[in-house]
Amino acid sequence: MSEVPRIDELPGGLSAGLEAVLMVADSPVPVGRLAQLFQVPEARVSQTLEALASEYDSTDRLRGFELRRVASGWRFYSRRDYAEFVSSYVLDGQTARLSQAALETLAVIAYRQPVSRGRISAIRGVNVDSVVRTLQTRGLIAAYGEVGEGGATLYVTTEYFLERLGLDSLDELPALAPYLPGVQDLESLDSATDLA
Question: Does pTM top 0.90 for this prediction?
Answer without folding.
Answer: no
